[in-house]
């Protein structure tokens, strides 16, 4: 009985110990759950605070920075990053915002990721991904030498409805463990809120872009409507469009039809005269706009048919997307405004609203046409006044000088003194020279004043010469004369052409005259006639002035002529 009683006492002594152990484990489990519930409640509160915080910022950069900072706190991650996808067809990362790595370390690492390897996997398959060790995944590219070590990984897509904006990446769980399912749930909820915030920020940026286009449109209209505007209106339009659209290169073309166009201004790139001439022919979008009078675009110019080869624009080998809108600079010419982006900056192309660009060009064209109408009215008034002066000089002054000259010639025959006759003959010669000067001045009155449309001014000058020559000279332009001939060269060029046509009219007795104005690395003007030519002893008077105008600009004057073989005048100066 003692033994039995002792055994019972031992068993009774052991049972309370076991119960005590089970009770402690139960208390510990309850406490763990309480702490877990408190942690979850704290996380939810932090998540709610995060939604309010990121929704309060309308700038995209500010939203992205807040999201990555909050994500590290919610998931107890040491590092976090948010990559925003590009709008282009490649769907790679165009923005990568990181948290936890200092700027010095980031600079040492080098270029930010663009969306390859493991990051690209989540881009291609937008769904959450948790990993124990990044290096063990087959899509991992590894890290650069200076990159901090990272093992655990959690990646979540940032989306709104069915559209994916980017991905949220977290690495290195604090404490060395793995990211849990609860971490994933919280980060997915944060990513959903982030998608809404990013969409709001993008809408805000679009509103600001519309405002910038509106400001640019109002500014260019006010500038072009100013009667004292300069001669670089097309350049102003190209510069403003390049700035607002974030384009790499912008140019304008103009012509009477799609087969005869030239580049009138270019912004964002320096091209040679030969490349500008070739660009006038090679621009596919501008020709389509001129033909259909509506905007046209292409995501990559290399996709167009280049005669069996990859199409490239002269002087712009890395240009990809193109957008062209109608820009009719005058009532007599059609035109287009072409915006181009490098392939590395194609995202900017997708953010440009075609209608905003078209409206900008339309308003600029209307301002140009109104200014052209005002200039035509002013020019007409000036020309009418010049015609009156010319008629008065011709009908009154020249006729009186003729009468005086005839009287002097008669008086010279009545005197017997040789010295008197010689003086009278000299006076008659002086009167004849004065009459020639007056006629030259009358011809010069027919040339228009300085204008930015050198092609139009040369055309009008040649047409006015037809009334004196009794036939119309042939006229040809080579190269983009409007864009390469600066306004300060225009007066000299028109003066040289006026003198050459005047000589052909007064001395050459020609039946045909050919005028060619070319613009490339040299600005050259040639005037040929089939008249009687010049002898070797001809005295240069007006030709000396032409030669002086060329030499002052570092150019040359060459004259090829022989009796009975006509005359060819070549006047050229360096461009710029």
UniProtKB/TrEMBL annotation:
Every Histidine kinase domain range: 493-576
Q: Please indicate if the UniProt record lists Transferase as a keyword.
A: yes
SMART domains named among the record's database cross-references: GAF (SM00065)
What's one Pfam family here?
Answer: HisKA_3
**Keywords, sorted A to Z:** Kinase, Transferase, Two-component regulatory system
Highest taxon in the source lineage: Bacteria
What is the official name of this protein in its record? Answer: GAF domain-containing protein
State the organism's lineage: Bacteria, Bacillati, Actinomycetota, Actinomycetes, Propionibacteriales
């Amino acid at each position: 009985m003692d033994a039995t009683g002792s055994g019972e006492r031992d068993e009774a002594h052991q049972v309370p110990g076991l119960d005590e152990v089970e009770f402690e484990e139960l208390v510990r489990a309850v406490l763990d759950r309480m702490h877990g519930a408190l942690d979850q409640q704290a996380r939810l509160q932090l998540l709610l605070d995060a939604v309010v915080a990121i929704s309060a910022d309308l700038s995209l950069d500010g939203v992205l920075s807040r999201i990555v900072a909050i994500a590290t706190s919610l998931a107890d991650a040491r590092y976090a990053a948010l990559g925003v996808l590009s709008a282009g067809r490649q769907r790679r990362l165009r923005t990568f915002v990181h948290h936890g790595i200092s700027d010095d370390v980031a600079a040492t690492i080098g270029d930010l990721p663009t969306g390859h390897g493991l990051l690209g996997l989540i881009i291609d398959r937008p769904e959450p991904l948790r990993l124990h060790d990044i290096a063990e995944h087959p899509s991992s590219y590894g890290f650069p030498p200076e990159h901090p070590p990272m093992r655990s990984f959690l990646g979540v897509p940032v989306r709104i409805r069915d559209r994916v904006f980017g991905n949220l990446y977290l690495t290195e769980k604090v404490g060395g463990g793995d990211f849990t399912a609860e971490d994933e749930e919280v980060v997915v909820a944060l990513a959903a809120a982030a998608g809404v915030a990013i969409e709001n920020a993008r809408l805000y940026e679009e509103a600001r872009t519309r405002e910038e286009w509106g400001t640019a449109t109002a500014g260019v209209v006010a500038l072009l409507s100013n009667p004292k505007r300069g001669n670089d209106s097309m350049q102003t339009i190209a510069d403003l469009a390049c700035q607002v659209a974030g384009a790499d290169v912008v140019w304008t073309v103009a012509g009477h039809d799609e087969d005869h166009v030239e580049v009138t201004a270019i912004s964002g790139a320096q091209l040679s005269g030969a490349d500008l001439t070739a660009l006038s022919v090679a621009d596919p979008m501008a020709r389509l706009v001129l033909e259909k009078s509506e905007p046209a675009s292409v995501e990559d110019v290399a996709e167009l048919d280049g005669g069996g080869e990859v199409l490239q624009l002269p002087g712009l080998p890395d240009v990809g997307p193109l957008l062209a809108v109608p820009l009719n600079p005058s009532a007599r010419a059609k035109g287009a405004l072409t915006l181009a982006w490098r392939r590395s900056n194609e995202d900017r192309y997708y953010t440009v609203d075609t209608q905003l660009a078209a409206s900008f060009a339309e308003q600029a064209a209307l301002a140009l046409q109104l200014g052209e109408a005002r200039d035509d009215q002013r020019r007409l008034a000036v020309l009418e006044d010049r015609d009156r002066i010319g008629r008065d000089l011709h009908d009154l002054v020249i006729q009186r000088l003729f009468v005086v000259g005839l009287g002097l010639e008669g008086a010279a025959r009545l005197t017997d003194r040789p010295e008197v006759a010689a003086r009278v003959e000299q006076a008659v010669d002086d009167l004849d020279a004065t009459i020639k000067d007056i006629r030259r001045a009358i011809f010069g009155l027919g040339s228009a004043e300085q204008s930015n449309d050198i092609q139009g001014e040369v055309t009008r000058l040649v047409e006015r010469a037809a009334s004196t020559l009794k036939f119309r000279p042939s006229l040809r332009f080579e190269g983009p004369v409007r864009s390469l001939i600066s306004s300060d060269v225009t007066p000299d060029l028109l003066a040289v052409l006026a003198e050459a046509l005047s000589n052909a009219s007064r001395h050459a007795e020609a039946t045909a005259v050919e005028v060619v104005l070319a613009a490339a690395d040299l600005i050259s003007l040639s005037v040929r006639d089939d008249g009687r030519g010049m002898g070797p002893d001809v005295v240069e008077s007006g030709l000396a002035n032409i030669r002086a105008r060329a030499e002052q600009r570092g150019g040359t004057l060459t004259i090829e002529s022989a009796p009975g073989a006509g005359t060819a005048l070549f006047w050229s100066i360096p461009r710029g």
